[in-house]
Amino acid sequence: MDEKTREALEQADEAALRRVRTVAGLMDEAVRVPGTDYKVGLDPILGIVPGGGDLVSAGISLYIIAEAAYLGVPLSTLVKMLGTVTVDVVGGSVPVLGTLFDAYWKANKWNVDTLEEYLGVEGEEETADPDEPVSIDVTESD
């Protein structure tokens, strides 16, 4: 593999990590609960929607697992990640208590941590202003 191809793959891997970190942050820790240091995301909010909210949340969670598979994570680790999402869906589907469970069980964050551990990269430090908009750079390739 030539140097240009290797560099392109590394940039793709970094972009994939940024994407999964962003998705996990939105789903699990998008908003700080006023008066506390605790954060919740869209997962418990989607869980309020009867019937389909937890399934939509699970579909979004599967995106992180798909990216992990793309990055070469072994099947055993992918199965562990699927188990985490399964617990999230089952626990979150319990009426009333499921929303509280979703606020506590941060499957997406745990799955990103698992992916980062496999890849041997450090988690992203939270130094950005939470009120600052998120931007995703999109570049065209030849």
Number of domains: 1
Biggest β-sheet: count, sense, barrel? 2 strands, antiparallel
Compressed to H and E, one letter per element, the order equals: HEEHHHHH
Shape: globular
Beta-strand fraction estimate: under 5%
Based on CA atoms alone, the radius of gyration comes out at: 16 Å
Query: Which sequence of strands runs across the widest sheet?
Result: 1-2
Alpha carbon gap, first and last residue:
18 Å
Structural class: mainly alpha
Q: Which stretches of 5+ consecutive residues score pLDDT under 50?
A: none
State the helix count. 6
Helix percent reads 55-70%
Indicate the mean pLDDT: 83
How many β strands by DSSP?
A: 2
Describe the 3D structure.
The chain is built from 6 helices and 2 strands, in the order αββααααα. It has 142 residues and is an all-alpha fold. Strands 1-2 form a two-stranded antiparallel ribbon. Helix 1 (3-28) packs antiparallel against helix 3 (53-70), helix 3 (53-70) runs antiparallel to helix 4 (75-92) and helix 4 (75-92) packs antiparallel against helix 5. The model has no long low-confidence stretch (mean pLDDT 83). The chain has one domain (3-119). Helices cover 63% and strands 3% of the residues. Residues 122-142 are annotated as: Disordered. This is DUF4112 domain-containing protein. Pfam families: DUF4112.
